[in-house]
Structure formats: C-alpha cells, structure tokens
Specification:
InterPro entries: Carb_sulfotrans_8-10, Sulfotransferase. With about 190 residues, this protein is of the alpha+beta class. It has seven helices and four strands, in the order αββααβαβααα. The protein has three domains: about 1-45; about 50-135, no CATH class; about 155-185. It has helices at about 20-45, 80-90, 100-105, 120-130, 140-150, 155-175, 180-185, and strands at about 60-65, 70, 110-115, 130-135. A four-stranded mixed beta sheet has the order 3-1-2-4, with helices on one face.
C-alpha cells in the first residue's frame, strides 16, 4: 500500500498508517465468503443459457472490440460506465467521457445487447469475453435514486413513475387515515 498523502486518511477511516495484515486477511476472507455466497445462490437458480429470455439479458452490453460484456445496474455508476464504453469505441483521440449527455448515453439503441445475438453466439461470447458488473449497497442506491429522480424534476421519470408513486401514497394515506404509523412511514 502506498505511503499516505499528507492530510489524507486510508479509506476515510482516520488511519494514519496503512491497514495491518490482519485487516488485509479479514478483507480477503470476507471477499471469499461473498464470492462463495454468490456462487451458491446462482447455482440454486439453476438456469441454463437456453432458459434465459430476453428480459434477463436486457442489461448486458456487449463490446466486441474489447471482448467485454458489461451488465449494468441502474444507480450503480451505469451512466459513467456507458460513457466510458462509448469513448473507448470512438476513434482516437478518445473524447472525454463526461462530454456525453446523460440522456444520449442511455439511448437503448446505442449499444449491442446480448439478447440481440443468436443463441450460439451468446454462448460463445459468455464463454470467452470478460464479464463485469458493479453492485452498491441497496439503501444507498435507493437514496441516490430518490435524489436523482424525485428531488430533481425529470419529465420522463415523473410521468412514468413519480405520478404512480404519489397516487399510491395518496391512496395509502386515505385508506389508513388516522393511523399514526402511516404518516410517519410515508413522510
């Protein structure tokens, strides 16, 4: 681990020294346990590639030029990763990924998706390409979605989702009128 920069702490934890080898061992063990849990849960689902329908494959972006498959999860840096993929597939000199408009980046037709390939080609790509995704704490993801979609007016999102959420909230409040827990939860 590199020496700390002046005034900065490791991982925001206030450490003035690098983490000890005990910390590194615990982190490695924790990562191994997470991987084992993921493998067990995926094995329990027991779906073959043939069983997967297009819905399951909606979020898999294929980049043939670099031999990668990116499974994006909304509110887990997917905008920035899509920008990066667009920049990587542009001609040199590569454009600044941040120069791409957010709405433009999310245009579904901008990318090749795994679901659009024939079954044999899907299997080939899944066997040979590097696959990756990013995850995020679900509660932090929910807060991020609220801040991004509810606090900042977005016409598309508002028409599609926010109006529905507000109508459910109004209905729930009317149905539970007088129950103190309902107003506590919803506000």
């Amino acid at each position: 681990i590199p020496a700390p920069l002046t005034g900065l702490s490791y991982f925001g934890c206030g450490w003035s020294q690098p983490p000890t080898s005990l910390f590194a061992l615990r982190s490695t063990k924790q990562q191994r346990l997470r991987q084992d849990l993921l493998r067990r849960n995926c094995a329990a689902v027991n779906l073959s590639l043939e069983d997967l329908n297009s819905t399951y494959l909606n979020n898999f972006i294929v980049d043939d030029k670099h031999g990668i498959i990116y499974c994006y999860i909304p509110k887990v840096a997917c905008t920035n990763w899509k920008r990066t993929l667009i920049a990587l597939n542009s001609s040199k000199p590569y454009p600044d990924p941040m120069s791409f408009e957010q709405r433009w980046v999310h245009n579904f037709d901008r990318f090749k998706h795994l679901k659009n390939f024939p079954q044999a080609e899907r299997k080939e790509k899944l066997q040979h390409y590097t696959k990756f995704l990013f995850v995020r704490d679900p509660f932090v993801r929910l807060i991020s979605a609220y801040r991004d979609k509810m606090q900042h007016y977005d016409q598309y999102f508002y028409k599609g989702y926010v109006r529905v959420i507000f109508s459910i909230r109004r209905w729930f409040t009317v149905v539970t009128k007088g129950w103190t827990w309902s107003t506590t939860i919803l506000r």
